[in-house]
């Protein structure tokens, strides 16, 4: 497609204007002849013997926005791209299979990865050069994107045969790397050995002061925290069990006090850029909210500390209010970047969430009754949340100077010390902080909101179903269970094909909030089945509505039929039959979110009213055996093994909800589903 002339802004739409993905829509007016992933682009590359430039990202990705602004909106760079390459854009959240194949290549060749992912392919889709973000022009430390484009185009013209041979060798190496699940089956290691190794690895990497399991960046990793709860349940009378519980609860408290937790708008940001949980990467992802709601609910169930129940409620409030669809599902994410004011021309990371000291003072000028003369609401609020006159963000954590003079709220002082400092009673302090948060939230509502990705994914909605269902059962809140049922109904109506029994990957918000599908719907991947099935089991346990259990068993059967490899003892990540995928991968460690791969066979190892006899499926042991042989050096990634307690860890059968300090069950369970089967 021809691009606009240099004399006027390039506003002519390219093919991406017809796509439903918010990420692809963001690039629909680039001066680049973008194609979506599909046969039209592949045919063009073969017909014209052109290389493919593949760019993969997602709509709330900060560096994806940066590369678009610097390179993809640049008229001259756009012309170089369109002249020399068939340019393809992929939303990694729509097509995790495509992303996974080429990320495997980038990680294998560079030792790292991330988004935006930039990969150059031969016309038959074999990768030979790849990376992530490229600056537009050369610098002392980096080769610019313009130079990379020109060099690769020249190499294709001059050394085409050599590049083809290189790409074939790369493909063969990738196939070798991807042979997870092709070795001979090995016996699963003893349960206690694996649990101990996982615990020791987490204990060794634990941050004693601030919690978490790394220095920085620091991610919430709820799967690790859930594992530690399991380890405590099995070893609660031992020093190791006590340490497991201490590590998990301390981490959860430090996260909730930190800036990674949005104290004004609720919910959690993606990760912290420092070990203190202070300065976050400000995007908010649905999958984090679902998992964290579960882990905070469990923390309350174990400890009886209302603090954790309050945080779980905080997360679910954010998810319902800001990510909830009127149709019943949940949107995917909120961006990190936004305009500081309605008249701003440039977005900044965190602009929606940060505060200048003078803003806080202006919003909270009232004197505090009972405090020292002259003490205002602002004084107390700023003391508690660490607000400083010149900002509380270290320049080392603000390389682009977007947060200069701003404050990221963090519970800097304990409530007891703050109350004592100002001569207040604890109840007075709580009221002051609550009023301060209310006023700041009202002021923040007047700011331009970050971009909302209104794509709705089956897998992430499944995680949110679990979050609401488990919180509803533990906190005894029927409204949470009802919200989980509403989301499950949404998935059934909009993301499931009754005829084939298959899930769909995604749907989208259209005009007037009407739910729409793309012209060529994308069928679900393994993660979609895993998380929807788990959500349905959690919803069944919270509601005892047998229809959710029946549907979960039906989906489990479909999952086994579509993804299980009986020869390789593992599940494929995607269905068979897509000729555009170079590799059909199996993934034992599974992505940045959740316990995928480990909630799979729950229906086969848990007695239920729909089964005429109790049976133990061999699939959990088969999958464990294969995973053990493939991942002997990273047992911490196996922490999802707690899901196998019913068959592989028989001692878990003794760990009942009723033994925990704060059981929360909505009513008596049928005799064939007892609390010992699901805690």
UniProtKB/TrEMBL annotation:
Annotated signal peptide: none
InterPro entries: 6-hairpin_glycosidase_sf, 6hp_glycosidase-like_sf, Ssp411, Ssp411-like_TRX, Thioredoxin-like_sf
Organism: Gallus gallus (Chicken)
Protein name (record): Spermatosis associated 20
Domain Spermatogenesis-associated protein 20-like TRX: residue ranges: 14-174
The organism's place on the tree of life at top rank: Eukaryota
Any one Gene Ontology BP term: carbohydrate metabolic process
Pfam name, any one: Thioredox_DsbH
Gene3D superfamilies: 1.50.10.10, Glutaredoxin
């Amino acid at each position: 497609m021809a691009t606009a002339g240099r004399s006027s802004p390039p506003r002519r739409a390219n093919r991406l204007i017809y796509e439903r993905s918010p990420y692809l829509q963001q690039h629909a007016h680039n001066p680049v002849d973008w194609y979506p992933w599909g046969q039209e682009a592949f045919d063009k590359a073969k017909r014209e013997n052109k290389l493919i430039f593949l760019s993969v990202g997602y709509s709330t990705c900060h560096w994806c926005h940066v590369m678009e602004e610097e390179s993809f909106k640049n008229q001259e760079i756009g012309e170089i791209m369109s002249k020399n390459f068939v340019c393809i854009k992929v939303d990694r959240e729509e097509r995790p299979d495509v992303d996974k194949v080429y990320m495997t290549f980038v990680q294998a060749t560079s030792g790292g990865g991330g988004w935006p992912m930039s990969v150059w392919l031969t016309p038959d889709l074999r990768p030979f050069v790849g990376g992530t973000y490229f600056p537009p022009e050369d610098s002392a430390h980096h080769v610019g994107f313009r130079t990379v484009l020109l060099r690769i185009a020249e190499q294709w013209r001059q050394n085409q045969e050599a590049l083809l041979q290189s790409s074939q060798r790369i493909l063969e190496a990738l196939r070798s790397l991807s042979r997870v699940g092709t070795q001979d089956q090995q016996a699963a290691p003893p349960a206690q050995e694996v649990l101990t190794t996982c615990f020791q690895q987490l204990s060794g990497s634990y941050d004693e002061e601030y919690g978490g399991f790394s220095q920085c960046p620091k991610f919430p990793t709820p799967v690790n925290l859930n594992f530690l709860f399991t380890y405590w349940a099995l070893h609660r009378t031992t020093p190791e069990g006590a340490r497991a519980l201490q590590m998990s609860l301390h981490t959860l408290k430090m996260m909730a006090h930190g800036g990674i937790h949005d104290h004004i708008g609720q919910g959690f940001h993606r990760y912290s850029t420092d070990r203190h949980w202070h300065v976050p990467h400000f995007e908010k992802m649905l999958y984090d909210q679902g998992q964290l709601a579960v882990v905070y609910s469990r923390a309350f169930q174990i400890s009886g500390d209302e603090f954790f129940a309050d945080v779980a409620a905080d997360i679910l409030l954010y998810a319902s209010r800001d990510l909830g669809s009127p149709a019943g599902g949940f949107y995917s994410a909120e961006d990190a970047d936004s305009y500081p004011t309605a008249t701003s021309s440039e977005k900044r990371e965190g602009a929606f969430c940060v505060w200048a000291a003078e803003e806080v003072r202006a919003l909270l000028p009232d004197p505090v009754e009972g405090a020292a003369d002259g003490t205002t609401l602002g004084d107390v609020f700023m003391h508690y949340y660490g607000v400083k006159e010149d900002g509380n963000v270290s320049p080392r954590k603000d390389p682009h100077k977007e947060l200069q003079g701003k404050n990221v709220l963090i519970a800097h002082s304990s409530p007891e010390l703050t109350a004592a400092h100002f001569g207040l009673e604890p109840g007075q302090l709580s009221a002051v902080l609550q009023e301060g948060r209310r006023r700041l939230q009202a002021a923040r509502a007047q700011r331009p909101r970050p971009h909302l990705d209104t794509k709705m994914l089956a897998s992430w909605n499944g995680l949110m179903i679990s979050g609401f269902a488990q919180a509803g059962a533990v906190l005894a809140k029927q409204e949470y269970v009802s919200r989980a049922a509403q989301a499950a109904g949404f998935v059934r109506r909009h993301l499931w094909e009754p005829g084939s029994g298959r899930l769909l990957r995604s749907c989208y918000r259209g005009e007037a909030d009407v739910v729409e599908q793309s012209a060529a719907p994308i069928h679900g991947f393994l993660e979609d089945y895993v998380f929807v099935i788990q959500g349905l089991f959690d919803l069944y346990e919270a509601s005892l509505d047998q229809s959710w259990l029946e549907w979960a068993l039906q989906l489990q059967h479909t999952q086994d039929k579509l993804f299980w490899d009986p020869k390789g003892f593992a599940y494929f990540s995607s269905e068979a039959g897509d000729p555009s995928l170079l590799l059909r991968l199996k993934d034992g460690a599974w992505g940045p979110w959740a316990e995928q791969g480990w909630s799979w066979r729950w229906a086969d190892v848990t007695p239920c009213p729909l089964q005429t006899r109790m049976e133990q499926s061999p699939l959990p042991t088969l999958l464990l055996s294969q995973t053990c042989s493939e991942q002997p050096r990273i047992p911490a990634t196996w922490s999802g093994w707690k899901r196998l307690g019913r068959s592989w860890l028989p001692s878990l059968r003794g760990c009942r909800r009723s033994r925990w300090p704060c059981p929360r069950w909505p009513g008596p369970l049928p005799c064939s589903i007892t609390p010992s089967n699901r805690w």
